[in-house]
Amino acid sequence: MPEMNAMALGLLVMIFLVWKLDFVATLLGLKSFAIALPDRLRGMWTEEAYEKARQYHTDSSRFSIAKSVASLMTILVFWLLGGFSWLDGLTRGWFPDQPILMGLAFFGVLFGGQAILALPWAWYDTFVIETRYGFNKMTPSVFFADQGKGLLLAVIIGGPIAALVLWIFGSVSMPWLWAWLAFSVIQIIMLILAPVVFLPLFNKYEPMPDGELKQAIEEMARRCHFPLTGLYIVDGSKRSTKANAQFIGFGKTKKIALFDTLVEKHSVAELVAVLAHEIGHFQCKHVPQRLIASIVQSGVLFFLIGLATDGNGVFSRMLFDAFGVAQISPHVGLVLFMILFSPVSCFLGVVFNAWSRKHEFEADAYAAKYSSAADLISALKQLTVDNLSHPTPHPLRVWLDYSHPPMIERLEALEKHR
What we know:
Number of domains: 1
Mean pLDDT: 91
Order of helices and strands: HHHHHHEHEEEHHHHHHHH
Oligomer: single chain
Number of strands: 4
Strand order of the largest sheet: 1-2-4-3
């Protein structure tokens, strides 16, 4: 059974603090959504659309609270009843002399069980909440097809990567360094392969037909010295009415993909302004900055994972005792470290989200310079209303997990560039 040592007690406190902080932020978010339409939002929102957005966020917040409570209770019950020790013993019995297969079986059962528990929540969110407010266009067959494709990719891609990491941590000296280098190379390869191999598994990417929109985007790309190599329309409407755009490609090969829902709801000028914003991320070097930051962060994580899987380490012994697992091993250590690090990752997310919000302001300024601030303002207003976005989110929620600035702040900043 788990030992309530200093690490276990500290982790329990941190998990509850993070959960409580998120819970409070959710309640404050509900309170900050005024019942009556604020005067400053008139002209952007109708009374009917505003009330619909308020009800949508009320339902979504209640769902989020219920889901977070269930998730918290599940991990605590499994932990405190010795579930990790039981699962480790079970998979060791299946492959007693094959540590890599043992580890893969441990991952498979644990994350497979997690996926099964998450499935009803995903179903309710998609077919109850999103359907109730007119967003969902997905059929049950598409839903289960997506789930199956995701599982297949996890096995085909995640399985070999997990096996490689387990082999490194069980076979070489300074395993954290080699695992970090291997993971960084794989991360870059995935960026290259994703747009041509993985994304088309979920959506159709049709070449954009000749016409005013294509001509305007190509002209804007030339004006911004953006190496555009392809324009596509994505059938996003088969899943949701929510609009989106994607920039895909790596290095000097860049492609733009617009969801059909975005094209249907916006003028050519607005679409050009939205894409100018996305090009701004590339031209302001935000993409390589984030990639470098991600690689550096993964290096720190792998170093700490090395401590968590050290067979003779004091840190790893305390960690395994906290979860009631007798034998130190790479596969269990990886999972336990993920749980230990989860509260810390929430606070790291605060830093990265603040950095991301700064990047969004910079990309908006770029778009205002190379297209039109007025057109981008118009597009953002329409996207906010169409997606029933929270018009006045509470600062605590923004601080915790908003990667984009609140819409009011973006609009106020853009007004200065008109």
